[in-house]
Design a protein that fits this description.
By secondary structure, the chain is mostly helical. It is built from eleven helices and no strands.
């Protein structure tokens, strides 16, 4: 139970106040937490679409998405943007990741992610909306299997003790959640793997490994990619 509560506390703003021990075992429950978040978003978006124009419903959905996660992954994505896109040395990139100030690259990444998520929500299927948080949290487990850029920080807390048990368990749980959606689920998962792998490889090339901020960028980017896969497949 501690590991499930730890996953909820880490990935959402749920008011869990008890003392928790964070370890890689919590990653096993990341897709389940994603499913719970997805359920809240789908219910809220369903109601908003009945009462509001598409853009207004999409704006509320985007705001709820950000608030429910405490903007945790957006914060990481913006820091990652500053570090990955700057033309400098690996050492300086790692220093940028520790800098609390938001730079031009980070601000651009932040705006683009929110804009793309808002635009997709205005027209994507509720099925794609349900899949996005699940696959994005699975992508965090997938990303944790890559080498680390530094030995300290939240990412190291999980990645250092990560085993095949957590990876296999999270993947099987994700399969059970995604499989009922057929080709949409398969296409969305494939898109998630491609996006997560490309960003992980970019981080490996420019930082020598991944950090918690890179995890945030991967999570947000996978969510956007799944929404757009839903849009594309709906047109076929």
């Amino acid at each position: 139970m501690n590991d499930l509560l730890a996953a909820v506390a880490l990935l959402t703003i749920a008011p869990i106040r008890r003392e928790l021990n964070f370890s890689a075992r919590a990653l096993l429950y990341f897709p389940l937490v994603g499913a719970a978040l997805a359920g809240v978003l789908v219910l809220a978006q369903s109601g908003a679409r009945l009462l509001l124009p598409p853009f207004a419903a999409a704006a509320l959905g985007t705001a709820l998405w950000v608030l429910a996660t405490g903007a945790l992954h957006l914060d990481g994505a913006s820091d990652a943007g500053d570090a990955l896109l700057a033309e400098t040395t690996r050492e300086r990139r790692l220093e940028i990741l520790r800098d609390v100030h938001l730079g031009a690259f980070g601000a651009t990444i932040l705006v683009l992610l929110l804009l793309l998520k808002f635009a997709a929500l205005a027209d994507t299927t509720l099925t794609a909306l349900f899949l996005a948080p699940i696959l994005a949290r699975w992508a965090l487990v997938y990303a944790a299997a890559f080498p680390l850029a530094r030995s300290q920080g939240m990412a190291a807390l999980f990645a250092k003790t990560l085993t095949r048990r957590e990876i296999t368990g999270a993947t099987l749980l994700t399969f059970l959640l995604v499989a009922p959606f057929g080709w949409l689920g398969a296409g969305a998962w494939l898109g998630a793997v491609i996006i997560a792998t490309l960003l992980a490889r970019l981080a490996m090339a420019r930082l020598g490994g991944l950090t918690g901020d890179i995890y945030g960028l991967i999570c947000e980017s996978v969510e956007v990619s799944v929404l757009f896969v839903g849009l594309a497949l709906a047109k076929l």
